[in-house]
Amino acid sequence: MASKKKTPFDAVKVLEQIEEKFEMFQILNEEGKVVNEDAMPDLSDEQLQELMSRMVYTRILDQRSISLNRQGRLGFYAPTAGQEASQIASHYALEKEDWVVPGYRDVPQIIWHGLPLAQAFLFSRGHFKGNKSPEGVNVLPPQIIIGAQYVQTAGIALGLKKRGKEAVAITYTGDGGSSQGDFYEGINFAGSYNAPAIFVVQNNQFAISTPRDKQTKGKTIAQKAVSAGIPGILVDGMDPLAVYAATKDARDRAVAGEGPSLIETLCYRYGPHTMAGDDPTRYRTDDMDTEWEKKDPLVRFRKFLEEKDLWNEEKENEVIEKAKEEIKAAIKEADDTPKQKVTDLMEIMYEEMPYNLNEQYEIYKEKESK
Ligand SMILES: Cc1ncc(C[n+]2csc(CCOP(=O)(O)OP(=O)(O)O)c2C)c(N)n1
Ligand SMILES: [Mg+2]
């Protein structure tokens, strides 16, 4: 039986008071109407159109990637449809000198940061050339180890601070990733050193088949920021304007020397976890899919732009055609890239080949020259 003993403080109330603060931040509702005029970001008409173009392009890239994977022309692929606002609008708030530290689902952000599409396809095929970004393109290869990118980001951000750069490091994980030790280590370290980092959790409701409510007893993931003493914000991750505004604010504070932020974007992945064979119908209902599809970021942003006469079918078709052409050219470039050799891997691994590998290296060189 519960005791009625008087306690010196109400611990449960403290938690409730904290959780009350984490309301979902939204600017554009599901109908494409602005519901939070005060928070409207300062974006020109051209920028709004560019943001839409990038989201449409990314949706096409996702559809094509799924189909190329089914044809056996791509390897590892984690679908992105449903997450365009979370991915593209957060990236849109960045500058070229910022560092993007992606997880495996975050290929769109690194492409928009400058990684050539052909290289993204090579990454999917496990080719080492996919992982070496061109000079001046500040991206890391997509991280497969869940949460590890949070620790790397704290380090990169501290490096930027020590070098006096006016830039941030941004990283992405999922709802599942927020349960990893690396998640806490990353946000805590960056907080302690006031490092210019932005930590995004794309809460797409599932970690493979594990539902969000199994990840934490907390009502939100954003509130985990409290433990690190950094600002946390819960954002409608299907609303591009809200995601942009939240990320822009986090970036402004970071470059002003105010340290890191944690942003949770509430979103949904329409497709399977990856193309490796999971079946979402085993862990999700049609009703749930339909509910989330009503929140679609492209649909609501299209309505918003059409209302302002900034978007139409013709514009959208132009983007779709451009995306298809570029994807076709990039896959050809990936096809034309010479297959990787064992000697390539040995060469890129060492500046100077260790003596005990010399013999093997010579054997492969001989074999591969035939
Ligand atoms: C350290 C580690 N543990 C387990 C896995 C296997 N794994 C791959 S994806 C995944 C789920 C991640 O879910 P979430 O963080 O929500 O990201 P999402 O895939 O939904 O974008 C798991 C457990 C892994 N890659 N790394
Ligand atoms: Mg997830």
From TrEMBL:
Enzyme Commission code: 1.2.4.1
Coiled-coil zones: 310-340
Gene3D superfamilies documented for this protein: 3.40.50.970
Keyword Coiled coil assigned: yes
Enzyme class: oxidoreductase
Keyword Coiled coil included in the entry's annotation: yes
MF-aspect GO terms: pyruvate dehydrogenase (acetyl-transferring) activity
GO biological process: branched-chain amino acid catabolic process
Residue ranges constituting the Dehydrogenase E1 component domain according to the UniProt record: 53-342
Entry cofactors: thiamine diphosphate
Reactions catalysed according to its record: N(6)-[(R)-lipoyl]-L-lysyl-[protein] + pyruvate + H(+) = N(6)-[(R)-S(8)-acetyldihydrolipoyl]-L-lysyl-[protein] + CO2
Alphabetical keyword list: Coiled coil, Oxidoreductase, Pyruvate, Thiamine pyrophosphate
Function: The pyruvate dehydrogenase complex catalyzes the overall conversion of pyruvate to acetyl-CoA and CO(2). It contains multiple copies of three enzymatic components: pyruvate dehydrogenase (E1), dihydrolipoamide acetyltransferase (E2) and lipoamide dehydrogenase (E3).
Subunit structure: Heterodimer of an alpha and a beta chain.
This protein's name: Pyruvate dehydrogenase E1 component subunit alpha
Taxonomic source organism: Jeotgalibacillus salarius
Gene this chain is encoded by: pdhA
